[in-house]
């Protein structure tokens, strides 16, 4: 079954230095969807190891299975427009509407 349009939870504002979690979920896809987050239209990289993440200055953890995007300490650089995409290899992938997070 192709995925449904996912529901995205993105806080509209966050305080610098706080922990912020964005979530994305859809329940109709079978097999279960994987989720990809985008910021300002660019796919976010999945954190693979401490070395590469530090080099890229990545401050978040993206879980493609659960759809969460977790910022341990948000910075002003994390301000932007976020959306996620659900895909399971069947039918078209589905995106939620873009939501802006101001830090």
Describe the structure.
The structure is a single chain. This protein is mostly beta strands. It has a single domain, classed as Sandwich (Immunoglobulin-like). It is built from one helix and nine strands, in the order ββββαβββββ. Strands 3, 4, 7, 8 and 9 form a five-stranded antiparallel β-sheet that branches. Strands 1-2-6-5 form a four-stranded antiparallel β-sheet, with no helix packed on it. Strand 3 and strand 4 form a beta hairpin. The radius of gyration is 14 Å and the shape is elongated. It starts with 6 loop residues before the first strand and ends with a strand. Belongs to the immunoglobulin superfamily. One of its GO terms (cellular component) is cell surface. Keywords: Cell junction, Cell membrane, Disulfide bond, Immunoglobulin domain, Membrane, Signal, Tight junction, Transmembrane, Transmembrane helix.
Q: Give the proportion of residues in helices.
A: under 10%
CATH topology: Immunoglobulin-like
Q: Which regions are unreliable across 5 or more consecutive residues at pLDDT < 50?
A: none
Main sheet characteristics: 5 strands, antiparallel
CATH architecture: Sandwich
Report Rg.
14 Å
Q: Please provide the ordered H/E string of secondary-structure elements.
A: EEEEHEEEEE
CATH class reads Mainly Beta
Helix-strand makeup class: mainly beta
What is the beta-strand fraction?
35-45%
Shape: elongated
Mean pLDDT: 91
**Count of helices?**
1
CATH superfamily: Immunoglobulins
Total count of domains: 1
Count of strand segments: 9
Distance between the termini: 37 Å
Membrane topology: Single-pass type I membrane protein
Domain Ig-like: 3-103
Subcellular location: Cell junction, Tight junction; Cell membrane
Keywords: Cell junction, Cell membrane, Disulfide bond, Immunoglobulin domain, Membrane, Signal, Tight junction, Transmembrane, Transmembrane helix
């Amino acid at each position: 079954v192709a995925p449904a349009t996912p529901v995205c939870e993105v806080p509209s504002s966050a305080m610098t230095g706080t922990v912020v979690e964005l979530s994305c979920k859809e329940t109709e896809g079978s097999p279960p969807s994987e989720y990809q987050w985008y910021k300002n239209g660019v796919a976010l990289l999945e954190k693979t190891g401490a070395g590469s993440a530090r080099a890229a200055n990545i401050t978040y953890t993206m879980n493609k299975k659960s759809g969460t995007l977790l910022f341990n300490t948000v910075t002003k650089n994390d301000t932007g427009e976020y959306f996620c995409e659900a895909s399971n290899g069947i039918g078209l992938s589905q995106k939620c509407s873009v939501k802006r997070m101001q830090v």
